[in-house]
Amino acid sequence: MISRDKAPTAQETFMQMAQAAGLRGRLLVTVGILILVRLGIFLPVPGINRERFAEAISGNNSIFGLLDIFSGRGLSTLGVFALGILPFINASIIIQLLTAAIPSLENLQKNEGEAGRRKISQITRYVTVGWAVVQSTAFSALFLQQFAVNPGPVFVAETAIALTAGSMFVMWASELITERGIGNGASLLIFVNIVASLPKSLGDTIDLVQVGGREIVGRVIVLVLVFIATIIGIVFVQEGMRRIPIISARRQVGRRVLAEQRSFLPLRLNQGGVMPIIFAAAILSLPLLIANFTKNADLANIVNTYLSPSGSGSWVYALVYMVSIIFFSYFYSSLILNPVDVAQNLKKMGSSIPGIRPGKATSEYIERVSNRLTFLGALFLGLVAIIPTAVESTLNVPTFRGLGATSLLILVGVAIDTARQIQTYVISQRYEGMVKQ
Question: What is the pLDDT of residues 150-170, one digit of tens each?
Fold first, then answer.
């Protein structure tokens, strides 16, 4: 007999994946959809001179490289799924920000239950369509048109329609994975896209080692050790939390008097996950995009010098990046956790924190603890975002460019969440087995 209190072992998990029809079906649906989306990346957008396009992006910036990794090399191959899941992620971020600012959306999320969540999901889909149209039109008109065989309004319209349709299909696929598969669909699509770029980076690194000799081998070994240490740190911090003890008051149910119960309120060390890094990277990419579109040489020189990780003023870039990450960490933590609501809910349930008065004192205590945790988590995110890139630039190993802190955080976070969901399903199978017996 398997103890219901123990976490499932690897052997038990793999046995359930092979034998349990429900889990096996979900895994097959997930793998099939991921393969289908990967194949769609290589369906080419027509009417583009690909040789000129490849020459133009060969020496492009790290922001383009990061977006290209998120799309699974869809931008560099100019496939129909070039935009990938990015419009849906952007729309989700917009709706999250608006939910905190618009009372009607906040009411849908907090008070309307499942119907409210479905309504917000529908609004997110509409925003995704609009955002995909804007992104695809701007990408086609401002960037792709210079590589078109027959440039003009017809080319822009056709390319925008193709890219928007591809993005909508990817959004549908991600929701299908979330509903009928394993894990979060959008996160898994980004995970697979990042993993798909690893073979090319590894191949380029092997070629660099063969050409460079022993000196390059030492540099690559140091860079790999830094990546491994970063992954270990990410796991510890992603799993780290502060457990605030909570005592529930005695209750009388009929003639029985229930003793006070002890539980805890979990506050994660990294509330925002990877979102603060994504926001900070987006802010730092704006001056570069403006310089590229305006063709201003002075602005481009300033940006390449002070707002680039490889520029002579890279310390300014690192400082701005760190401050931006800390700011967005606090901002995103405020969206996720509301100390006043938590204190009110504890008071309604007759629960309290030992040594803290209910009400305002409880909310102030939770806010103080949350701010300290957020500061520590933000410092960690900033170090994780800066150190691998700085080491890569110092060692002059450019083959992993774009595969930095953000990619590592996403890989580790999605792997942990998906493994937890599989373990939860395995544990539920235990209880079904006990009921049948």
Answer: 888 888 898 899 999 999 999
The DSSP element (H or E) to which 247 belongs, if any, is strand 241-248
Q: What angle do CA 124, 125, 129 make, to 5 degrees?
A: 115
Cβ atoms of 416 and 235 within 8 Å: the answer is yes
String of b and e for 157-173 (b: at least 16 CB within 10 Å)?
eebbebbbebbbebbeb
Measure the CA–CA gap between 410 and 419, rounded to whole angstroms.
14
CA–CA separation, 72 and 211 (whole Å): 28
pTM: 0.75
Residue 133, pLDDT score = 92
Query: CA-CA distance, 122 to 105, in Å (whole number)?
Result: 12
Query: What integer is the mean pLDDT of 108-133?
Result: 85
* β-sheet bridge partners, residue 262: 247
Distant-in-sequence, close-in-space partners of 410: CB < 8 Å, separation ≥ 6:
187, 190, 191, 194, 274
The SS3 call for residue 61 is: coil
**CA 24, chain centre distance (Å):** 26
Quickly count: other Cβ atoms within 10 Å of residue 241's Cβ.
Answer: 15
Spacing of C-alpha 152 from chain mean position? 36
CA distance 299 to 302: 5
| Phi, psi angle pair for 247, to nearest 5° | -115, 130
pLDDT tens column, 167-189: 999 999 999 998 888 888 888 88
Could you give the CA distance from residue 164 to residue 170 in angstroms, rounded to a whole number? 10
The conformational region for residue 72 under phi > 0 = left, psi -120 to 50 = alpha, else beta, is left
C-alpha distance from residue 12 to each of 20, 165, 181, 214, 429 (Å)? 11, 41, 20, 45, 11
User: Which amino acid type is present at position 144?
Assistant: L
- Whole-number percent of the chain with pLDDT over 70: 77
Mind listing the pLDDT tens digit for each residue in 330-345? 887 877 788 888 888 8
SS3 content of the chain, % helix, strand, coil (to 5): 75, 5, 20
**Residue pointed to by tokens 């990967």:** 38
Q: How far is CA 77 from CA 19, 40, 41, 180, 260, in A?
A: 39, 11, 8, 30, 62
